């Protein structure tokens, strides 16, 4: 069973359908127990960092994520769901930034690029021992974001360039994350979702 | 590697069917929207856009149902536009499965709507659709409404700058002069809008030959939208991508199985 955490961020219907193609049961939930007990928890997210943290806190999401990781239960963050795993986000902030869940150190900051948001299909330079990218090493994935993490965290990293190089994927034991949207990345995205699902 | 240029298939939908006309009139039936969306997705479209041109409430409900059914089986980004007047309209479409919405007339009538939508859902969900034509305004381009039939006395470039400041995440630039003619995108208009905007720019209206697509990219477009050339089989999406790839433009080739 995969749980997709519903904390009021974006449309979760297509994420639900995309993860269901893995063959596992999928539930969209904001219920603490369901989110804790699922084999895998997906933390999606679109919009702004601060708004996402606010929504996440309203369903006790940060505590759920921390508890799962401490119990070695897999978590997958997508887009803003990846960004909020860092210590800090500098989006729309005049006074030093917003606090994230803090699974990883470092901050998420504005990309230095002539055209933003970074919107569309881009490639990921992944590690050859990556689990997520097995079989889809040379494919492109769909990105929509203006902010990103730019320093390495976790055990394995994926990197993408838009104006500058940024962290587009992390595999760190029981916690994985992608800056792109696998649920919107066609066949390649579904393959990546299947790779993650098989690891649960 | 770098960000690929996007090829976007646009489906004009009314009362549950895809239609296409020339200069927004003389509409002819072009097929079932969900089937066509799935087909274009399989052929390698990078995004899909539904423009709801229904005049009736029932037509809009039908479109919501089409969005739902499409989002269940097509896993690429879907933009929906047409008749969006409020944050609630956006919420309804996003919940049905849209990833982005495009707004046009309602934003001209009430520009604050742009900021309202961007504040609630983020700029990345909001595409400003600009239906522009050549006219005697400051820049030589004016904004039109009602499918290009009515000029509203607003300079197109001034409007783009204002909308960007209010928080749109992307611009869909439709040339009303070129729409449906297959005589080429309006290159001058793309160049002019590119100069005043730093968000992604989608060129629309007039795609005919394969050279038209690369010309729009050279003028500064990030994405290329077309409807009739795809609906009527003049080009397949793969043909456009192969052409661009062979001319060294970055494109996403069809994913391996």
How would you characterize the overall build of this protein?
The complex is a heterodimer of chains A (200) and B (257). Chain A is of the alpha/beta class and 200 residues long. Chain A has a single domain, classed as Rossmann fold, CATH 3.40.50.880. Chain A is 26% helix and 32% strand. Chain A has 6 helices and 13 strands. In chain A, the strands form 3 sheets. Chain A has a 7-stranded mixed sheet, with helices on both faces. In chain A, a hairpin with an 8-residue loop joins strand 5 and strand 6 (98-99). Chain A is globular and about 40 Å long. Chain B is 38% helix and 27% strand. Chain B has an 8-stranded parallel β-barrel, surrounded by 8 helices. The longest helix of chain B has 17 residues, at 57-73. The A-B interface holds A 10-11, 13-14, 17-18, 46-48, 51, 114-123, 125, 135-136, 138-140, 142-146, 160-162, 181, 183-190 and B 1-6, 41, 46, 68, 71-73, 75-77, 94-99, 121-125, 169-170, 198-200, 222-223, 252, 255-257.
CATH topology of chain A: Rossmann fold
Number of helices of chain A: 6
CATH evolutionary superfamily of chain A: Class I glutamine amidotransferase (GATase) domain
**N-end to C-end Cα span of chain A:** 9 Å
Question: Helices, strands, pairings?
Answer:
The complex is a heterodimer of chains A (200) and B (257).
Chain A: E1 2-5, H1 13-20, E2 26-29, H2 32-37, E3 40-43, H3 49-58, H4 61-70, E4 75-78, H5 80-83, E5 86-89, E6 98-99, E7 104-110, E8 118-123, E9 140-145, E10 147-149, E11 156-162, E12 164-172, E13 175-178, H6 186-198
Chain B: E1 6-14, E2 17-22, E3 25-31, H1 33-43, E4 47-52, H2 57-73, E5 78-81, H3 87-96, E6 100-103, H4 105-109, H5 112-121, E7 126-134, E8 141-145, E9 150-155, H6 156-166, E10 170-175, H7 187-196, E11 201-204, H8 210-218, E12 223-226, H9 228-231, H10 237-246
Parallel strand pairs in B: 1-4, 1-12, 4-5, 5-6, 6-7, 7-10, 10-11, 11-12
Antiparallel strand pairs in B: 1-2, 2-3, 7-8, 8-9
Helix pairs in contact in B: 1-2
């Amino acid at each position: 069973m995969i749980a997709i955490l519903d904390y009021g961020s974006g449309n979760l219907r297509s994420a639900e359908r995309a993860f269901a193609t893995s063959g596992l049961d999928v539930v969209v939930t904001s219920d603490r127990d369901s989110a804790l007990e699922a084999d895998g928890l997906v933390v999606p997210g679109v919009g702004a960092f601060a708004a996402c943290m606010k929504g996440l806190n309203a369903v006790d999401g940060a505590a759920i994520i921390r508890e799962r990781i401490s119990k070695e239960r897999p978590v997958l963050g997508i887009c803003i769901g990846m960004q909020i795993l860092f210590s800090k986000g500098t989006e729309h902030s005049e006074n030093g930034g917003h606090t994230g869940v803090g699974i990883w150190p470092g901050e998420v900051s504005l990309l230095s690029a002539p055209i933003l948001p970074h919107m569309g299909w881009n490639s990921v330079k992944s590690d050859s021992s990556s689990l997520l990218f097995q079989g889809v090493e040379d494919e492109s994935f769909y990105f929509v974001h203006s902010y990103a993490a730019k320093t390495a965290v976790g055990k394995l990293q994926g990197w993408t360039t838009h104006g500058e190089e940024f962290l587009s994927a992390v595999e760190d034991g029981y916690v994985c994350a992608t800056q792109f949207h696998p649920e919107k990345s066609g066949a390649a995205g579904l393959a990546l979702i299947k790779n993650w699902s098989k690891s649960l | 590697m770098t960000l690929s240029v996007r090829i976007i298939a646009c489906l004009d939908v009314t009362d549950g069917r895809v239609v296409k006309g020339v200069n927004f009139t003389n509409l002819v039936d072009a097929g079932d929207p969900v089937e066509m969306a799935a087909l274009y997705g399989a052929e390698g479209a990078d995004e899909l856009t539904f423009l709801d041109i229904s005049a009736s409430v029932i037509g809009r409900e039908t479109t919501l149902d089409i969005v739902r059914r499409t989002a269940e089986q097509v896993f690429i980004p879907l933009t929906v536009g047409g008749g969006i007047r409020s944050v609630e309209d956006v919420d309804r479409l996003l919940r049905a499965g849209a990833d982005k919405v495009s707004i046009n007339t309602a934003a001209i009538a009430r520009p604050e709507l742009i900021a309202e939508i961007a504040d609630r859902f983020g700029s990345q969900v909001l595409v400003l659709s600009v239906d522009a034509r050549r006219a005697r305004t400051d820049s030589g381009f004016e904004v039109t409404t009602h499918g290009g039939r009515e000029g509203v006395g607003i300079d197109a470039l001034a409007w783009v700058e204002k909308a960007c400041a209010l928080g749109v995440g992307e611009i869909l630039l439709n040339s009303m002069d070129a729409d449906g003619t297959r005589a080429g995108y309006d290159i001058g208009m793309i160049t002019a809008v590119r100069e005043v905007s730093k968000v992604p720019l989608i060129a629309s209206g007039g795609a005919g030959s394969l050279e038209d697509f690369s010309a729009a990219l050279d003028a500064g477009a990030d994405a290329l939208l077309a409807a009739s050339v795809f609906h009527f089989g003049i080009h397949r999406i793969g043909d456009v991508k192969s052409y661009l790839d062979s001319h060294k433009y970055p494109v996403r080739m069809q994913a391996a199985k």
